[in-house]
Amino acid sequence: MSDTAAPPATPEVCDFVVFGGTGDLSLRKLLPALYRRELEGGLPEDTRIIGVSRADLDDEAYRAVVRDALASHVERSDLYDGAVDRLLSRLHHVPMEFDDLAQWHLLHGLLKDRPRVEEAVTVFYLAVAPSAFGLICDQLDEVGLVSERSRVVMEKPIGHDLASSQQVNDAVGRVFAESQVFRIDHYLGKESVQNLLVTRFANTFLEPLWNSRWVDHVQITVAESLGVGERGAYYDRAGALRDMVQNHLLQLLCLVAMEPPTYIGRETVRDEKLKVLQALKPMTPADVDRDTVRGTYGEGLVEGQPVRSYADDLGEAAPESGSTTETFVALRTEVQNWRWAGVPFYLRTGKRLPRRTSEIVVVFKAPPHHMFPHSEGSAEPNRLHIQVQPDEGMRLTMTAKEPGPGGYRLRPVSLDLSYADTFDQRSPDAYERLIMDVVKGNATLFMRRDEIEAAWSWAEPILDRWTTAPDRPRRYAAGTSGPTAATALIERDGRSWQEIE
Length: 501
Description:
Blueprint: E1 13-19, H1 24-39, E2 46-53, H2 59-73, H3 81-90, E3 91-95, H4 104-112, E4 121-126, H5 133-142, E5 150-154, H6 162-173, E6 181-183, H7 191-201, E7 215-223, H8 232-238, H9 240-257, H10 268-279, H11 285-291, E8 292-302, E9 305-307, H12 310-314, E10 328-334, E11 344-350, E12 357-364, E13 383-389, E14 393-401, E15 410-418, H13 419-423, H14 430-440, H15 449-468, E16 474-478, H16 484-491
Parallel strand pairs: 1-2, 1-4, 2-3, 4-5, 5-6, 7-11, 8-16
Antiparallel strand pairs: 7-12, 8-9, 8-10, 10-11, 12-13, 13-14, 14-15
Helix pairs in contact: 1-2, 1-3, 5-6, 6-15, 9-10, 9-15, 10-15
Binding site for substrate: 186, 190, 224, 243, 351
Catalytic activity: D-glucose 6-phosphate + NADP(+) = 6-phospho-D-glucono-1,5-lactone + NADPH + H(+)
Domain Glucose-6-phosphate dehydrogenase C-terminal: 197-498
């Protein structure tokens, strides 16, 4: 089927197998997303959901666990007994040690002993540590559960550097063709991120301005008010660059900077994103020292409540010599191509910042000539704010005359688009959309292997330099916007960050 053909239809028969079916991701995100699809009638009619884990649970015990999870992670107003019961009736659980091939017969029997087995699309969702990806795929192949109607979903992190990423992808690629592999980044499932493509490519007024002639710079911020929580052991091995920048922030950058594809299709969008990653300015050690800032949060106040430092949050997971892991990153980069030459892209992300928000801000150049010499106020550069979370929408900041006689009083005003207010309907959670795209076989919003490796190739020199640099991450108080060095990073260019407060 060509990429311009009609989008694939929802199959009638589906088995959705979740490895790590009792884990945090499954209970907090995947199963609530599947419940909402059940509630709105979006699941294929003949769907089974099979949790696989080490827990010694039969089907009824697993259904009880999931019922409790739905009560905790779905709004009470959205819980309906009929929909909950329908979802629970689809659930099965297979207890298994992944490395014991003899135990795989239970899963084999469950998947093969069903009506219309030859029509079934089987999704294998790897909600487990990446170290188990290759083992699980090998076992699936060994017991004969992989077919052309199979799909595999990989959660991040896909490796901790380029070499380990290649090892993970090689292990999965020995069993599944690239067209069957869905590397998920939930940011790409958010309504505002997808609407960025529509805003750019379905509206003629904006695209002629989307270049270095008119755009001064771009800011991408992903701020979290929470600390590391129970993820301390994992997070201290990863850090903010691996956990957020190498995947989420670079994917957002790609959607901002990519060239218009011929059409929005499975491979055309991913082809253009890859070109952006390949055009990112390579980071030399001198570039890393000058254009990156890393920090770690100390004690402070977040939303009026006192919180502990990163070291205290790590507790027993902290290294004896003290952690050098960054919980905050700010950096400056450029996309070295014809459209964006000379336009800086500023990226920042961090934990224990003033509030949770993810936003893209495209700042246009100031008017070339001051037309109102005796006015009060000033004509500020136009800004397009794309709010990714928590309240998805867009805001265009313009300069307007304040009403009244006696001259020109200039002030910035906003043209606002709130998806919730404009469309008067609930926006599906990112996982809801992405799960259904997997079921349908639509890979447009998923990362291709060459994208992952291009992102690691760009990020790795930063990690290498930080390993050898004598300085440690700069400390910032929880509840602030990060280290003062991050402010200096952008202000030395005569610019300033969009406020997080």
